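Q: Please design a sequence for this.
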């Protein structure tokens, strides 16, 4: 049976993996920094020309241990997208700009999240960080939902590449099974599979959001 104790025991037994994973995150981001900066500047200029300011979009998300943090992305939606409150993103979401759709397809909107990785708020691979309001709703409606926060949230992850969009609570519960699988089986071998599937996701557009 899944429980908080189960998650603790599993991750405690993988403390070496978690240490090396964090080190890998830092080294990977720092080594790729020159390319990241160049591509990031190009994307920033494109966003500014297309829709003006703000170029970046900051939003409170739930991180490891349930602690909130401010996740950053390149803005891909209209500035009034959340005027009426949070809503599930969908594949055909009309709040997304034309440029934003392109950026999402190739995951370029998530480049700024590497800053969150450097700060230790995120990992390159892990469960996707949820908006605070949705996280509170899901925690009330879905048993053991909070277990996914035992790991640092990631830019990409097993649930993202295996399921794609979750447009409601039912789909979120289905997607959660992949998060639980990752929490239980996290390893460099599984991470390598996620990286490969992420590349395929970018090429096919599956799950881009």
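A: Design:
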């Amino acid at each position: 049976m899944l429980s908080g104790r189960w998650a603790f025991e599993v991750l405690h037994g993988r403390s070496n993996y978690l240490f090396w994973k964090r080190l890998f995150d830092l080294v990977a981001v720092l080594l790729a920094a020159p390319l990241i900066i160049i591509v990031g500047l190009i994307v920033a200029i494109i966003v500014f020309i297309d829709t003006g300011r703000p170029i970046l979009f900051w939003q409170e998300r739930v991180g490891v241990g349930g602690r909130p943090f401010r996740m950053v992305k390149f803005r891909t939606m209209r500035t009034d997208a959340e005027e009426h409150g949070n809503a599930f993103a969908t594949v055909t979401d009309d709040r997304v700009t034309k440029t934003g759709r392109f950026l999402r397809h190739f995951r370029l909107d998530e480049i700024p999240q590497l800053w969150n990785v450097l700060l230790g708020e995120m990992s390159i691979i892990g469960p996707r960080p949820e908006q605070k309001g949705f996280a509170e709703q899901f925690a009330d409606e879905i048993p053991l939902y909070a277990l996914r926060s035992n790991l640092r949230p990631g830019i990409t992850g097993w649930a993202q590449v295996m399921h794609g969009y979750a447009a409601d609570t039912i789909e979120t519960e289905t997607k959660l099974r992949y998060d639980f699988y990752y929490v239980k089986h996290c390893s460099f071998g599984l991470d390598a599979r996620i990286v490969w599937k992420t590349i395929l996701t970018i090429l096919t557009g599956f799950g881009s959001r």
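Q: Thanks. Anything notable?
A: The chain has a mean pLDDT of 86. Residues 33-51 form the longest helix (19 residues).
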